[in-house]
Design goal:
Number of domains: 3
CATH architecture of the largest domain: Alpha-beta prism
CATH superfamily of the largest domain: Enolpyruvate transferase domain
Strand order of the largest sheet: 29-33-28-34-35
Low-confidence stretches: none
Mean pLDDT: 95
Bound molecules: cytidine-5'-monophosphate
Number of helices: 22
Strand content: 15-25%
Number of strands: 35
CATH topology of the largest domain: UDP-n-acetylglucosamine1-carboxyvinyl-transferase, Chain
Length: 679
C-alpha cells in the first residue's frame, strides 16, 4: 500500500493483463458478523484485508469471538448467540458495514442478556446518520443513547439481563437513506426469532436493494431463510437460528471490479484484454450490474463464473443517462468513464452519495472540474461532460479520505487516449485511503497500465562511492511511490557471479556474457542471485571493489544497459549509480549529483560498518574510497562525472531527511501541479 502524501501518475496510454481482486467488503463484513453470531467455527476463505474488515475483526475479538488464522483462511469461533463479554468500547473507524449491524446486534443482545456497549468511529463516522436505525430499535425496548449529536454515532447501547423485546408487531425502518439500516436489523433479529416470527417493514422507497440481496443471500448461507414480500416486508420465520455453513468463500469485490472494467473499456485497445479474476457474471453482488452500464457506454465485456474480460468496444465511449440506484458505489466509476465519452453523461438516483465516506456528489464534481470537465451537480444527480482535448489540466486531486474517489480519479491518467494535448499527469492526494477496500489498488493498476518508457518520469542520483546515493534514492522512491534501480547492485552481482564462476576479472567477453545472463531478482528488500539470497554479500566492501573492476569494461556496461532500462516502469523510477544521468537515462526529468568530501564519506562508511559489527579503520576506508573514485573517474567508458544538466547536492553537512526534502523540493518545482500540500 502507498503510505505517502501523494502519488503522481504519468499520462498513461494503454492497459492489459490480469487483475486479481481482493474480497468484497460488503460480503466480508457481513460474513464476519454472521460467523461471530453463529455457534461453532466458520472457516472464511479470501476475506478482504482492509481498514473496514480490521475494525470488524477487532470488534469481534473484543466481544469474545475467537479468531485463528491458518494461511489464507480465517477461522472464526462464534458466540452462538450468547454474549461472552457484557461491556466493551468498540472503535469502528469509518466502516458503515461494521457500525450499523453491530449497533443492531448489540442492542438486541444487550436488551435480552444485559450489557453496555459503546460504538464510535473516526470524525467522519460521527457525521454519517444512524438515526433511522436507532428509531427502529427504540420502540423494541432497546436502550440506545446518543453520546454526541442525536442521530449520529457515537452511541451507547445498554440493557439489563432478562429484558424483553417488543417484536410482536412488525418493526418499522426507513429505507430511503441507507439500506444498511434494514440490513442491520435483518442480521440482528434472527438472534431473537427462536420462538416467534419477526417481521420488518420498510417505510419509504428502499434504496440500494442489491445490498439487501447480499444480506439475504448470506443469511441463507447461515441457516436463516427470510421471506420477502416485494421490498416492503421481510419476515424471519419462527424457529430461526444461526447455523454456520462450516466454510464460506468471500467473492472478489464487484465495486472494485468496476475500476478494471472501466480500465478495459478505456485502455485495452490493442487486442489484449484486461482480465479480472475473483468476481464474475455469477456474482451475488449488485454492483456486478455495472457491467451493463459499461457495455452501454461502449465497453466490450465478456465473463463467466469468477472472471471478466474487458476490451475497448466503441471508441470514444458514449455518454449515457442512467438511474444508478441499483449500483450506487460502482456508479462513481461511470463518472470517471464520462471523461472519455462523447456527450454528457447524466447519473441520477444518487442521493445516497451524499452520506457516504464523504459527500460524493460535491467531491466528484469538484475534482472532475479540476481536470477540466464540465460538471453540473444537483441533490441526487450529476452531469459530466469530458474536457475538450486542449482543456485537460494537470490536476492535484483531493480524495476526501474516500477510497472510491481515489480509485476513480486515477483513471483520469489515461487522458492521452482522450486526445489530451498536451498529455497530462495526474496527482492523487492521500492515496492511502484505498486501504479501506483495496490496499494494493495502485500497484495493481500500475501492473496493467502501459505508457511509452520515455514518458515515465525518472530521477537520477549519481555520485561517488559512499556519498549516500543509495540511501537518498531509496528514500525518494519510497516517498514518491516510484520504482528503485540500484545500478551498483547489478555491477556488484556481476562481480559475485564472476567470482563464483571462476571468470577472470580481465576477461571482458566472459564477464559480459555473465552480465547478459544475470539471473537477478529484487524481492522486497532482498536481492536474489541465481536463487541465492546475496543481500548481505552484495554490500561487502570486497564486493564493491569487484564491481568497480568489472564495471570498467565497456562490454559489461553494454550488457547491463537493457536490464537497467527495464526498470523504467509506471509510475516512475529513481535510479542511482555513476552514469544514470549521463548514459542510461540522459532524458531523466531530474538529475542529482551528490558530492561529499572523501573524509566525510569514509567517516559515514566507517559508522555503517561498525554498527553492523564489521571491523574497519578510517584510514583504510578513505584510501579505498579514493582508489575507487580514481578508477571510476578515469575509466574510458562512462567515467564518473555529473551530467551537464545535473543539480549538485553537497550533502556533507545535511542529514538524510534534509537531502530528501531538498530533492523533493526540486522535483516539485518541475512538476505541473502547483504548491504541494503541507505535510
Ligand atoms: O554504487 P555502488 O557502490 O554499489 O557501486 C559499486 C561499483 O559499481 C562502483 O564503484 C562503480 O565502479 C560501479 N558502478 C558503475 N556504474 C553505476 C553503478 C555502479 O560503474 N551506474
Amino acid at each position: 500500500m502507498l503510505e505517502i502524501p501523494f502519488v503522481d501518475l504519468p499520462p498513461l496510454h494503454g492497459a492489459s493483463g490480469t487483475a486479481v481482486l481482493p474480497g468484497s467488503k460488503s460480503i466480508s463484513n457481513r460474513v464476519l458478523l454472521l460467523a461471530g453470531l453463529a455457534g461453532g467455527e466458520t472457516a472464511v476463505h479470501d476475506l478482504l484485508d482492509s481498514d473496514d474488515t480490521r475494525v470488524m475483526l477487532a470488534a469481534l475479538k473484543a466481544l469474545g469471538c475467537t479468531l485463528r488464522r491458518d494461511g489464507p483462511v480465517l477461522h472464526v469461533g462464534g458466540l452462538g448467540g450468547r454474549l461472552r463479554v457484557h461491556e466493551a468500547s468498540l472503535f469502528l473507524g469509518n466502516a458503515g458495514t461494521a457500525m450499523r449491524p453491530l449497533t443492531a446486534a448489540l442492542a438486541v443482545l444487550a436488551t435480552t442478556q444485559g450489557g453496555r456497549f459503546e460504538l464510535r468511529g473516526v470524525p467522519r463516522m460521527h457525521e454519517r446518520p444512524i438515526g433511522d436505525l436507532v428509531d427502529a430499535l427504540r420502540p423494541l425496548g432497546c436502550r440506545v443513547d446518543d453520546l454526541g449529536q442525536p442521530g449520529y454515532p457515537p452511541l451507547l447501547v445498554h440493557g439489563d439481563a432478562g429484558g424483553r423485546l417488543e417484536i410482536g408487531r412488525p418493526i418499522r425502518v426507513r429505507g430511503d437513506v441507507s439500506s444498511q439500516f434494514l440490513t442491520a436489523l435483518l442480521l440482528a433479529l434472527p438472534l431473537v426469532a427462536a420462538d416467534r416470527e419477526v417481521a420488518v417493514e420498510v417505510d419509504g422507497e428502499l434504496i440500494s436493494r442489491p445490498y439487501v440481496e447480499i444480506t439475504l443471500n448470506l443469511l441463507a448461507r447461515f441457516g436463516i431463510d427470510v421471506a420477502r414480500d416485494g421490498w416492503r416486508r421481510f419476515t424471519i420465520p419462527r424457529g430461526s437460528a444461526y447455523r454456520t455453513p462450516g466454510a464460506i468463500r468471500v467473492e472478489g469485490d464487484a465495486s472494485s471490479a468496476s475500476y478494471f472494467v472501466a480500465l478495459g473499456a478505456i485502455a485495452a485497445g490493442g487486442g489484449a484484454p484486461v482480465r479480472i479474476e475473483g468476481v464474475g457474471l455469477d456474482s451475488i453482488q449488485g454492483d456486478i450490474r455495472f457491467v451493463d452500464a459499461a457495455r452501454a457506454m461502449g465497453g466490450d465485456v465478456r465473463g463467466g463464473p469468477g472472471w471478466l474480460e474487458v476490451r475497448r468496444g466503441r471508441w470514444p465511449l458514449e455518454a449515457i443517462t442512467l438511474d444508478c440506484n441499483h449500483i450506487p458505489d460502482a456508479a462513481m466509476t461511470l463518472a470517471a468513464m464520462a471523461l472519455y465519452a462523447r456527450g454528457t453523461t447524466r447519473l441520477t438516483g444518487i442521493a445516497s452519495w451524499r452520506v457516504k465516506e464523504t459527500d460524493r456528489i460535491a467531491a466528484m464534481a469538484a475534482e472532475l472540474r479540476r481536470l477540466g470537465a464540465t460538471v453540473v451537480a444537483g441533490d441526487d444527480f450529476v452531469e459530466i461532460t469530458a474536457p475538450a482535448p486542449h482543456a485537460w489540466r494537470a490536476a492535484s486531486l483531493h480524495t476526501y479520505d474516500d477510497h472510491r474517489m481515489a480509485m476513480c480519479l486515477a483513471l483520469a491518467a489515461f487522458n492521452p487516449l482522450a486526445g489530451a494535448t498536451p498529455a497530462r499527469p495526474v496527482r492523487i492526494l492521500d492515496p492511502r485511503c484505498v486501504g479501506k477496500t483495496f490496499p494494493d489498488y495502485f500497484e495493481t493498476l500500475f501492473g496493467l497500465a502501459w505508457t511509452p518508457p520515455e514518458t515515465v518520469p525518472v530521477i537520477t542520483v549519481d555520485g561517488p562511492t559512499a556519498s549516500g546515493k543509495g540511501t537518498l534514492a531509496a528514500a525518494l522512491a519510497q516517498r514518491l511511490g516510484y520504482h528503485l534501480l540500484d545500478s551498483g547492485a547489478l555491477y556488484r552481482a556481476t562481480g559475485l557471479a564472476a567470482r563464483s564462476a571462476g571468470v577472470a576479472l580481465d576477461d571482458e567477453a566472459a564477464l559480459a556474457r555473465l552480465a547478459a545472463r544475470l539471473d537477478l531478482r529484487f524481492d522486497a528488500d532482498r536481492v536474489v542471485l541465481r536463487g541465492e539470497d546475496v543481500t548481505d554479500e552484495l554490500r561487502l566492501e570486497s564486493t564493491g571493489a569487484l564491481a568497480s573492476r568489472v564495471s570498467a569494461w565497456p562490454a559489461v556496461r553494454e550488457a547491463l544497459h537493457g536490464l537497467q532500462l527495464a526498470f523504467r516502469r509506471v509510475p516512475g523510477l529513481v535510479a542511482d549509480g555513476r552514469d544514470m544521468g549521463t548514459v542510461v537515462f540522459p532524458d531523466a526529468a531530474l538529475k542529482v549529483f551528490l558530492t561529499a568530501g572523501s573524509a566525510e564519506r569514509a567517516a559515514r562508511r566507517h559508522k555503517q560498518l561498525i554498527s553492523k559489527g564489521i571491523p574497519a579503520t578510517l584510514d583504510d576506508l578513505r584510501a579505498d574510497i579514493e582508489a575507487r573514485d580514481r578508477r571510476d573517474l578515469n575509466r574510458p567508458v562512462a567515467p564518473l562525472r555529473p551530467a551537464e544538466d545535473a543539480l549538485a547536492l553537497d550533502n556533507s553537512h545535511l542529514s538524510i531527511d534534509e537531502s530528501v526534502e531538498r530533492v523533493l523540493g526540486w522535483w516539485d518545482e518541475r512538476r505541473p501541479f502547483g504548491t504541494p500540500p503541507a505535510g
